[in-house]
Amino acid sequence: MMTIICGVDVSATMLDARIGPAGAVARFARNPQGIAALAEFCRSHGATLVAMEATGGYERLPFTLLWTHGVPCAIVNPRAVRRFAEAMGVIEKTDRLDAGLIAWFAEVRRIVAQEPAREAQGRLAAWVTRLRQLTELRTAQINQRRLVSDAAVLASIDEVVALVTRQIRTLAGQISALIDSDPLWQRLDAAFRSIKGVADRTVARLMAEMPEIGTLSNKAVARLAGLAPIARDSGKITGKRPVRGGRRGIREILFVVAEVVRRHDPDFAACHARLSQAGKPKKLICVALARKLLVRLNAKARDVRAQCALAA
């Protein structure tokens, strides 16, 4: 059965929609009334899926409201869509063309609908993002403090640092309470912390940015985090296999935490020693340890989910 897809190009104020690569087009305001009209446009043309690019957060409102109107949606990678367009020989770029390309890309890639995260998951993701932003702001202010000697400027920086520190403590407490309020998160929290070196921030980032953990195979979760080596072989040439893409935030925190875990876990220490003695580059060793940690976390999450399913 053929799936009719409506591609939507999202901007700050408008939604440009197109049925299929070259079908009917329409433009709607990016507000509740416009999104309701978009849902009706999709139903009138028999569209069973709306595909839209991730657009810096502007896609969240239409994505959520379309689901409430009973219209399944999916969010696609804008870089993948642009490369798809170039591969298909489309170098022009307009809002209408982009909407059609998104629909075409979704059709070729057989994109399926992605249900919106539950309310608690969305709240956790927002709070963890804000905590990261505040931490980065405090670090920047502390670094700037080292470069000045004027008393008024130092007092201003100290005031900002004190305010940000209070907000960090408050937000960290709220995140901890939110995790404790969910039975599954509570058990995942305990399982993750059983690995010495994994603490509050790591647990919160994992639950917020990788809610799929424990539901995927080890290979799939490594790809999701961008920790799966990418083959670059051709003929008799075997190229270096870099890692890229995936969820950068998760990958970065795993690099840091894996080094801490290595200091406490003999298995990680042995892995590091073995790779070092083999003359492997430091970056490769860092990636290997991060992937090893992610695989272990995924296994623990899988066990917790299985136990919860049996208890249900």
Q: Distance between the terminal alpha carbons, to the nearest Å?
A: 36 Å
* Helix and strand run: EEEHEHEHHHHHHHEEHHH
Low-confidence stretches: none
Morphology: globular
Q: What profile does the largest beta sheet have?
A: 5 strands, mixed
The gyration radius over C-alpha positions equals 23 Å
The percent range for helix content is 55-70%
Q: Give the overall pLDDT as a whole number.
A: 91
Strand order of the largest sheet: 3-2-1-4-5
Number of helices: 12
**How large a portion of the residues is in β-strands, by DSSP E?**
5-15%
Q: How many strands?
A: 7
Helix/strand class: alpha/beta
Describe this structure in words.
The protein contains 12 helices and 7 strands. With 312 residues, it is an alpha/beta fold. The strands form 2 sheets. Strands 3-2-1-4-5 form a 5-stranded mixed beta sheet. The two termini are 36 Å apart.
Structural descriptors:
two-stranded antiparallel sheet, five-stranded mixed beta sheet, 312 residues, alpha/beta
Q: Layout of SSEs?
A:
Layout: E1 5-10, E2 14-19, E3 25-29, H1 32-44, E4 49-53, H2 60-68, E5 73-76, H3 78-87, H4 95-108, H5 119-145, H6 151-180, H7 183-193, H8 200-209, H9 218-224, E6 233-234, E7 237-238, H10 248-264, H11 266-277, H12 282-311
Parallel strand pairs: 1-4, 4-5
Antiparallel strand pairs: 1-2, 2-3, 6-7
